[in-house]
From TrEMBL:
<keyword id="KW-0479">Metal-binding</keyword>
<protein>
    <recommendedName>
        <fullName>Histidinol dehydrogenase</fullName>
        <ecNumber>1.1.1.23</ecNumber>
    </recommendedName>
</protein>
<dbReference type="GO" id="GO:0005829">
    <property type="term" value="C:cytosol"/>
</dbReference>
<keyword id="KW-0862">Zinc</keyword>
<feature type="binding site">
    <location>
        <position position="229"/>
    </location>
    <ligand>
        <name>substrate</name>
    </ligand>
</feature>
<feature type="binding site">
    <location>
        <position position="121"/>
    </location>
    <ligand>
        <name>NAD(+)</name>
    </ligand>
</feature>
<dbReference type="InterPro" id="IPR012131">
    <property type="entry name" value="Hstdl_DH"/>
</dbReference>
<feature type="binding site">
    <location>
        <position position="320"/>
    </location>
    <ligand>
        <name>substrate</name>
    </ligand>
</feature>
<feature type="binding site">
    <location>
        <position position="251"/>
    </location>
    <ligand>
        <name>Zn(2+)</name>
    </ligand>
</feature>
<feature type="binding site">
    <location>
        <position position="407"/>
    </location>
    <ligand>
        <name>substrate</name>
    </ligand>
</feature>
<dbReference type="GO" id="GO:0008270">
    <property type="term" value="F:zinc ion binding"/>
</dbReference>
<feature type="binding site">
    <location>
        <position position="254"/>
    </location>
    <ligand>
        <name>substrate</name>
    </ligand>
</feature>
<feature type="binding site">
    <location>
        <position position="183"/>
    </location>
    <ligand>
        <name>NAD(+)</name>
    </ligand>
</feature>
<dbReference type="GO" id="GO:0004399">
    <property type="term" value="F:histidinol dehydrogenase activity"/>
</dbReference>
<dbReference type="Pfam" id="PF00815">
    <property type="entry name" value="Histidinol_dh"/>
</dbReference>
<feature type="binding site">
    <location>
        <position position="412"/>
    </location>
    <ligand>
        <name>Zn(2+)</name>
    </ligand>
</feature>
<feature type="coiled-coil region">
    <location>
        <begin position="54"/>
        <end position="81"/>
    </location>
</feature>
Length: 423
């Protein structure tokens, strides 16, 4: 890994892949095809892109039940414990509607209402992502969303991975469709004969899924357009270099564009971690991916002290931040920008990815400066409640009229004045 001093500004920000012109045109054509031809388009596109010939897209009850025979009891127990942890964490995020009354009879409030329906996209291909299902479905359920639809591309055999089906079953998601790519996003946004439209689409996917989500935003809401994964480790001379190297590589194996960075005030630790990364890379199954990530987007920044190191972390605003210092809890209050903060030597980033409870759908590419992890609020909407009494309008009506006329909106002012005249 490159060891370098800190420049005036540092950044993890990379140009988000907005696709080529050809990719954008292809996605627009797919969306229009689904809008015009519905299920027929889904069948054609599923055959073309996934190699699966499907008459019906919806996963049957028999398929869900049959998936249990293909996973071990140990894995099933781990999934169930993770679900409990994730649900418990998100239950604590719930907010209640509220009202407040003033002496003059004014009543103001906020009504919180869950979305009616949400579509969750689960990537397919060579890997299965049950953790993605849990992190998207559970906050929606806690928020009170009644209809949760899951879509995921089937293999050429027309099946979804057993772990995906079992996870969905454990969560009680019954509306599951074997369709993926931009066509799945289009179906969720506009509906087909088989799939009724939803109000919001969440979940990760490839560039075509990302472009499709961007294209349908406005017709439906979306969670975010996430960039490549990233981790920053903030460490002092007391940290274990083997742990740090392992954690850096845990993100580097995601993607050639993933970013893994160490920020430390110890030159000795920097040298040790650089050596450990090379040692551990040698036996990593996804060595080629991790090696490219480390080479192009990895770095070790050596600072004068921890004060400067914290400043660097806040400039980077990472998706994942690990604090591996002698007194890590003392530094949390100084961290302003990070999607998720992992504190101490035994809080490795995968703990949050799979099991601890907080959501792993996190802001990337420096957007932790102004955005948050996926949470229960993302699956609700808020309505303001305003009730003015006769007394309150008599007291304040002339002020409201004056403000309306200040903006040149006479009809607004008269809507108030007419009531004042009657009284």
């Amino acid at each position: 890994m490159k060891i370098q001093p800190v420049n005036e500004t540092v950044s993890l920000t990379r140009d988000l892949d907005t696709g080529t012109e050809a990719q954008r045109e292809a996605v627009e054509a797919i969306i229009e095809q689904v809008r015009q031809k519905g299920d027929t388009a889904l069948r054609e596109l599923t055959k073309k892109f996934d190699g699966a010939s499907l008459e019906q897209f919806r996963v049957t009850k028999e398929e869900l039940e049959g998936a249990y025979s293909q996973i071990s009891e140990d894995l099933l127990q781990a999934l169930r414990e993770a679900i409990v942890n994730i649900r418990d964490f998100h239950e604590r995020q719930k907010r209640q509607s509220w009202m407040t009354a003033k002496e003059d009879g004014t009543i103001l409030g906020q009504k919180i209402t869950p979305l009616d329906s949400v579509g969750v996209y689960v990537p397919g291909g060579k890997a299965a992502y049950p953790s993605s299902i849990m992190m998207n479905v559970l906050p929606a359920q806690v928020a009170g969303v009644k209809r949760i639809v899951m879509v995921s591309p089937a293999g050429a055999d027309g099946k979804l991975p057993a772990s995906v089906l079992v996870t969905a079953s454990e969560l009680g998601v019954a509306e599951i469709y074997k369709v993926g790519g931009a066509q799945a996003v289009a179906a969720l946004a506009y509906g087909t004969e088989s799939i009724a439209p939803v109000d919001k689409i969440t979940g990760p996917g490839n560039i075509y899924v990302a472009l499709a989500k961007r294209a349908v935003f406005g017709k439906v809401d979306i969670d975010m357009i996430a960039g490549p994964s990233e981790i920053v480790v903030l460490a002092d001379e007391k940290a274990n270099p083997r742990y740090i190297a392992a954690d850096l590589l845990s993100q580097a194996e995601h993607d050639e564009q993933a970013s893994a960075v160490l920020v430390t005030n110890s030159q000795e630790l920097a040298d040790q971690v650089a050596g450990e990364v090379e040692t551990q890379l040698a036996t990593l199954p996804k060595k080629a991916i991790a090696e490219a990530s480390i080479r192009d987007y990895g770095a070790i920044y050596v600072t004068r002290d921890l004060v400067e190191a914290i400043d660097v972390v806040n400039q980077l605003a990472p998706e994942h931040l690990e604090i591996l210092t002698e007194e890590p809890m003392n530094l949390i209050g100084k961290i302003r920008h990070a999607g998720a903060i992992f504190v101490g030597a035994y809080s490795s980033e995968p703990v949050g990815d799979y099991f601890a409870g907080p959501n792993h759908v996190l802001p990337t590419n420096g957007t932790a400066r102004f955005s948050s992890p996926l949470n229960v609020d993302d699956f609700t909407k808020k309505s303001s409640i305003i009730s003015y009494s006769k007394q309150a309008l008599q007291t304040h009506g002339h002020k409201i009229s004056a403000l309306a006329r200040l903006e040149g909106l006479e009809a607004h002012a008269r809507a108030i004045d007419i009531r004042l005249e009657d009284n």
